[in-house]
Design brief:
Elements: H1 3-11, E1 16-21, H2 24-30, E2 36-40, H3 41-51, H4 57-60, H5 63-69, E3 71-75, E4 81-88, E5 93-101, E6 108-116, H6 118-127, E7 128-132
Parallel strand pairs: 2-6
Antiparallel strand pairs: 1-2, 3-4, 3-7, 4-5, 5-6
């Protein structure tokens, strides 16, 4: 994901953008073989409007790293959802990306990105299953 592509997505000139890949463990959880993850222009507007006080352009550019190296948690009661969380040690904060698969299970999208407190991650871990540890 390039900064130019992200600008086009935010401005609405691009409807969606491939931002990373799903790990094998997550693809198995979702029951799909395709590994691409997309961010839609609607989702990026939602993220900036709802979480803009903590999430900006720089954090959005971290989505590929979150998907690649983050802790992945699958939700039991919502099998179409997963979360990827990455702790940014240099800034002492944790970013959480929620990923949703479409009903036909053909595509995966970043639904939201926000800053999470440690208790939110622990709660997700109690309600779900760890699909993959941090890398």
């Amino acid at each position: 994901m390039s900064p130019e592509d992200l600008r086009d997505l935010i401005s609405g000139r691009m409807p969606r953008l491939a931002v990373g890949t799903l790990p094998l463990e997550v693809r198995r959880h979702f029951g799909r073989s395709e590994d691409k993850v997309f961010l839609s222009s609607e989702s990026v507007v939602h993220i900036l409007e709802k979480h803009g006080e903590h999430i900006g352009y720089e954090e959005l550019l971290l989505i590929p790293k979150i998907l690649e190296a983050g802790l992945w948690i699958g939700e039991f009661n919502r099998p179409e959802w997963c979360s990827a969380s990455l702790f940014l040690e240099d800034e002492n904060r944790r970013l959480l990306a929620a990923i949703k698969v479409t009903k036909d299970r053909r595509e995966s999208f970043v639904a939201t990105l926000h800053q999470a407190k440690p208790r939110q991650i622990r709660s997700k871990m109690r309600r779900g299953i760890i699909l993959r540890q941090h890398w």
